[in-house]
Amino acid sequence: MNILLVTSETLPYCKSGGLGDFIWSYSKALVQKGHDVSVIVPLYGSMKTKFPETTAELYDNYDFQMNWKNQGCGVFHLVNQGVNFYFTAMDEPFGREGALYGYGDDNERFATFMMAVNTFISRHNRFDVVHCNDWQTAVLPLLLTYNPKKIKTVLTIHNPAYQGWSLRGDLPYFFNLSTDYYDSGYARLGDSFNFLKTGIMSADKVNTVSHTHANELMHDHVGFGGMGSIIDWCRHNDFSGIVNGLDTQVWDPLTDKHIGENYDINTYKAGKKVNRDAILHLLDMNTFFSGPLFSVVTRLSSQKGVERIMSIMPLLRQYDARMIVIGTGEMEDQFLYESLKYPEVYFVKKYDENLAHLLYAASDYFLMPSYFEPCGTSQMIAMRYGTLPIVSNVGGLNDTVKDLSVGDEATGFVFDNNCYDGFYNCFKAANEFYFHEPEKYTRCQVNGMKGDYSWAKSADDYLELYKSISWK
Ligand code: ADP
User: Fold this and answer.
1) Inter-residue contact 135 to 163 (CB < 8 Å)
2) How far is the CA of 25 from the CAs of 28, 37, 262, 379, in angstroms?
3) How many beta carbons lie within 10 A of that of residue 421, not counting itself?
4) 60 CB less than 6 Å from ligand 1?
5) What 8-state DSSP symbol labels residue 224?
6) Which of 75, 124, 406, 410 is surrounded by the most beta carbons within 10 Å?
7) Could you give the residue ranges of the DSSP H alpha helices within 319-394?
8) Are 147 and 123 in contact (CB under 8 A)?
9) In what order do the strands lie in the sheet with 322-328?
10) Hey, which of 251, 298, 328 would you mutate to test ligand 1's pocket, going by the most ligand atoms within 8 Å of its Cβ?
């Protein structure tokens, strides 16, 4: 099958969160299964200097019309591990150095990207399925309904909290589309032209990234601006959940180049100890404490349960425990202010891929008390590195972490998201467990490290989804 993945980020070139992990690991899994896989992504300013290979081969060059402007676009190409990467080069609006998103004109930026991809597809019309991801690419399925080839489309929702809220007039302004799509309600949610809703209405199939989150989303008619009700009422039969796999090549404690000491299931105790000492020295922290080392690697947004993490900071001293947090995001200043009150907490306010690897390897527990979590990548990484995750029972966390209550198969702690002090009590229980149940703690570590987080099954589920529409 010939598959085009359309995305706003992908490893190894640009990443802000789990979407970047998803695209790269999933596309390699598809190649291994014998498919022809392409990924198309904007060429961001920072990529040109960091990855000069991304601009080595000019593959195509064209103009397209966006109502009031004629936009030029170069497309660069390279092949990495069998995956064809296409980078759309448009200095304005993608040439800026710095973050991938978070600009006032993000709607216009990604509308421009979608129009560029739409033109690219008509010029190279060989794809059986075009697989879009999140709001940044979600209007493309509607644009492709005008393509004479009737290309099949899938939209994956990685995070329904981000939707692309635009104006009615942006339908013609950005996309040359009629405002009838807004007036009829097709592209409208509340008082905005909603990119994500447009994709939900127009893609052949829609999915999210875990079974539990698919269920949560369809039955939540209030949260996310009522997006769940749209899925439930309009796309019930075309909506499903497929849990993400992990890139077991990138995230392997035995071969990971970013950590101080490599280890596997036989050597993890000694290995983790070396990594623990390494990160403590690196951050100039005292290595002498008897309690567990807790870790967090996250976007500091409210979704991730940041207040919950702050609420347990006063308990660290009681258990002679430490916590290292690597994160950035809208709550970073609030988090910094809080963390400075506790000498047991070390906060690294930046995006640091290398340090994140070392921290997963060094720590005893990984905290992920999210209020919602479509899939989550970090909890799987933690388990693979012998670090017990402490998670809420939502979305992909619920689907991938086995709570202590299941007995011998457990891999971590899962608390009730709806219980007011669920996380607080769970955190205390985890400390007690660490001190008083060393054998059970070890068993959880081993179970986690042995777990199958590969794409083998989930890639087949996506292929089934593609096949189910390719005959239509
Ligand atoms: P989300 O996609 O919602 O941000 P996920 O758990 O799916 O959450 O994916 C987060 C990914 O981003 C993980 O690979 C995690 O290690 C990485 N990550 C998040 N914040 C940072 C950071 N500040 N530094 C390095 N890596 C980070």
Assistant:
1) yes
2) 5, 12, 22, 16
3) 13
4) no
5) G
6) 75
7) 332-339, 353-362, 378-384
8) no
9) 345-348, 322-328, 293-299, 365-368, 388-392, 413-415
10) 298
The first and second tokens of residue 58, run together, are 């000019």
Residue 472 binned pLDDT confidence (cut-offs 50, 70, 90):
low
For 346-358, what is each residue's pLDDT tens digit? 999 999 999 999 9
- Domains by residue range for the chain, with CATH: 2-245+456-467 (3.40.50.2000), 268-450 (3.40.50.2000)
Residue type, 46: S
Q: Is residue 112 pLDDT above 80, yes or no? A: yes
Q: Does residue 349's CB lie within 6 angstroms of at least one atom of ligand 1? A: no
* Residue 374 Cα to ligand 1 middle (Å): 13
Distance CA 93, CA 70 (A): 13
Contacts of 298 by beta carbon, 8 Å cutoff, 6+ apart: 304, 325, 326, 327, 329, 368, 378
pLDDT of residue 268: 98
**pLDDT at 458 (0 to 100):** 96
pLDDT at 150: 87
Q: Which residue reads 């996250």 in tokens? A: 298
356 lines ligand 1 (CB under 6 A): yes
**Residue-wise pLDDT tens digits, 209-225:** 999 999 999 999 999 99
Answer yes or no: is the C-beta of 101 below 6 A from any ligand 1 atom: no
Whether the full predicted model's pTM is greater than 0.70, yes or no, is yes
Q: Is 204 exposed, middle or buried (0-12, 13-18, 19+ CB in 10 A)?
A: buried
Residue 116, C-beta contacts closer than 8 angstroms, at least 6 positions apart: 64, 71, 73, 88, 90
Q: Cα of 376 to ligand 1 centre, how many Å?
A: 8
The Cα–Cα gap between 72 and 90 comes to: 7
**Does the C-beta of 355 come closer than 6 Å to ligand 1?**
no
Cα→Cα distances 457→25, 27, 215, 241, 461, Å? 13, 14, 20, 13, 6
Ligand 1, atom 12, lies closest to the CA of: 17
Give the Å distance between the CA of 234 and the centre of ligand 1.
32
**Would you say 29 and 455 are in contact if contact means Cβ atoms under 8 Å apart?**
yes
Which ligand 1 atom is the nearest neighbour of the CA of 244?
7
Q: Is 460 in the pocket of ligand 1 (CB under 6 A)?
A: no
Helix (H, G, I), strand (E, B) or coil at 241: strand
What is the tens place of the pLDDT at every residue in 301-324? 999 999 999 999 999 999 999 999
> pLDDT band at residue 25, thresholds of 50, 70 and 90?
very high
Q: What is the pLDDT of residue 471?
A: 60
